[in-house]
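Bit of a strange request maybe. I'm writing a small parser for C-alpha cell strings and I need a real example to test against, not something I typed by hand. Could someone generate the C-alpha cells for this chain?
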Amino acid sequence: MTEHTRQRSESDFRAPRRRFMRAVGGIGAAVGLAGLGSAQEGGAQSGSQQGGGQNGQQPTTYVLGGLTEHWVGLSPVVDAFHRQENPPLKFQPGEQYRVVWINLDGANHEFQILNRGGEELVATESTANVGEARSVDFRATQEMARYRCEYHPQTMIGDVQIGSEYATPTPAQTPSGNESGGGGGY
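Reply from user aminoacidic:
Good idea to test on real output. This should exercise your parser:
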C-alpha cells in the first residue's frame, strides 16, 4: 500500500466517524429539545419512562438513532432497548407516547408506526441531515404492530409490543451507575 493510499484510507474512515460522533453528540440536545417542545405543548417532558398521558402525566419517550442498517435504541437506558438494533417499542393501549429519532448517517429517514396490514398509523417528517431530530406524539392503540423507516423498510424495522412496558432503571441499574450510560458505541 502506498503512503498516499494509506493516508486516503485513514481519512475516508475518519470523515464518517466524525459525522457520526457529531450526530451522537447532538443526542442530548435533541432529547432536551424534545422535552422543551413538549413543555410548550402542555407540560410534558421527555425522559419519562412510565406510561403517561392520563391525569396530567408525562408521555413515555423513546429515542432512536437512524442508521440505514437499523434503528438503534438510545433511550430508555435499559438492557433490552439501549444500544440494541431495532429494539421493540412497548406500549400500553390508551397511554400517551413520544418517539424522537435522530439522523445519525445523513441518509433520508422517516419513522412510521404501522398496523398489521402495513397501513401507516403514525409518522414523523423525514430528514437527511446528520444530527437533526424528528418527533411524534400519539396515543397507543391495539392496532399498532411494527415500526419502520419509510425509505429503508427492509433494515430499519422493529416490533411494537402492545400491553407491555420497560421497567425504569434506577441509577444503580444503568451502565457505569449514571444516567448517560457511560462508554462509547452509540
